[in-house]
Amino acid sequence: TSNIYKRTSYFLSYFDMRVVCYKKKLMRVCVILKQIPEDGWPDHALELFLSWLACHDTNNRVDITTVGAGEREGRVVCSLVRKLHC
């Protein structure tokens, strides 16, 4: 059974690596090429992208006073934003 586990864990790690590469490719098209993708993104890729953007948002910095403007409006319109903030 240990041999099966090794093969399964290798496959899962390879699969996880491919998923991460796919998400990075989506982000690269949007950020570096400054193009909106033709096809819609899956929710997990949108969550990763929004988390990445939030890391660069000055409202999320600990060393300054936050403003918090715009979050309420986003929660009303988009269920994905509501999920991330609630």
From TrEMBL:
Question: SUPFAM superfamilies, per this entry?
Answer: PLP-dependent transferases
Molecular functions (GO terms): O-phosphoseryl-tRNA(Sec) selenium transferase activity; tRNA binding
InterPro entries assigned to the protein according to its UniProt record, in alphabetical order: PyrdxlP-dep_Trfase (IPR015424), Sec-tRNA_Se_transferase (IPR019872)
Q: Which domain of life is it from?
A: Eukaryota
**What are the GO BP annotations of this UniProt entry?**
conversion of seryl-tRNAsec to selenocys-tRNAsec; selenocysteine incorporation
Tell me the Gene3D superfamilies matching this sequence. 1.10.10.2160
Q: What is this protein called?
A: Uncharacterized protein
